């Protein structure tokens, strides 16, 4: 940590509501809306096989990303300071693999519960996560890692 580091650098990007909670609220909202006005998944997309494939993919991506956090001795929580800029593993392909995992989990829940509302609310989840968490994290990482992070942002997309 340099002398020029701000107070936020020591405390992380100031994301106080943990992103899984945002996705959980979205899922629960979809359940509530479905109780008021049921919207089943179209085209037979409620088959548990589809959800099982997506959740298996999600677990694999999450494990790969978390392994890189562990190897770099960096806390995965967005309210904790970062020690290292992780650019390996799934971070070579996307700057936000764990947010992709949370999005895939929400899609899986929609499929398993045969609930189109939950699937439609994925859009709201992604917008909230992007504006609330990712934008703060990106500002924080730019401040903390400077040119190294800016080069990484040019090389690797935010989502895919």
Question: Secondary-structure blueprint of this entry?
Answer:
Layout: H1 7-11, H2 19-36, H3 48-71, H4 97-113, H5 116-145, H6 147-155
Helix pairs in contact: 2-4, 2-5, 3-4, 4-5, 5-6
Describe the structure.
28% of the residues are buried. The protein has helices spanning 7-11, 19-36, 48-71, 97-113, 116-145, 147-155. The longest helix has 30 residues, at 116-145. Helix 2 (19-36) runs antiparallel to helix 5 and helix 4 (97-113) runs antiparallel to helix 5. Mean pLDDT is 89; it is low at 1-9. The radius of gyration is 17 Å and the shape is elongated. The protein has a domain at 63-153. The chain is mainly alpha-helical and 160 residues long. The chain is built from six helices and no strands.
Mean pLDDT: 89
The helix content is: 55-70%
Q: If helices are DSSP runs of H or I spanning 4 or more residues, what is the number of helices?
A: 6
The string of secondary-structure elements, in order, is HHHHHH
Portion in beta strands? under 5%
Alpha carbon gap, first and last residue? 31 Å
Integer-rounded radius of gyration? 17 Å
| DSSP strand tally | 0
Which terms would index this structure?
single chain, 160 residues, mainly alpha, 6 helices, 64% helix, 0% strand, disordered N terminus
């Amino acid at each position: 940590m340099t002398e020029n580091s701000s107070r936020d650098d020591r405390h992380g990007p100031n994301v106080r509501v943990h992103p899984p909670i945002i996705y959980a609220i979205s899922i629960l909202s979809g359940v509530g809306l479905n109780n008021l006005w049921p919207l089943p998944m179209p085209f037979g997309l409620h088959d548990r096989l589809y959800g099982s494939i997506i959740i298996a993919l999600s677990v694999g991506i999450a494990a790969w990303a978390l392994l890189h956090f562990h190897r770099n001795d960096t806390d995965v929580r967005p309210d904790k300071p970062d020690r290292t800029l992780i650019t390996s593993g799934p971070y070579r392909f996307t700057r936000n693999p764990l947010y992709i995992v949370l999005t895939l989990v929400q899609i899986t829940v929609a499929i398993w519960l045969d609930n189109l509302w939950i699937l439609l609310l994925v859009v709201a989840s992604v917008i909230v996560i992007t504006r609330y968490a990712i934008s703060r994290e990106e500002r924080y990482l730019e401040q903390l890692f400077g040119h190294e992070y800016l080069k990484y942002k040019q090389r690797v997309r935010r989502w895919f």
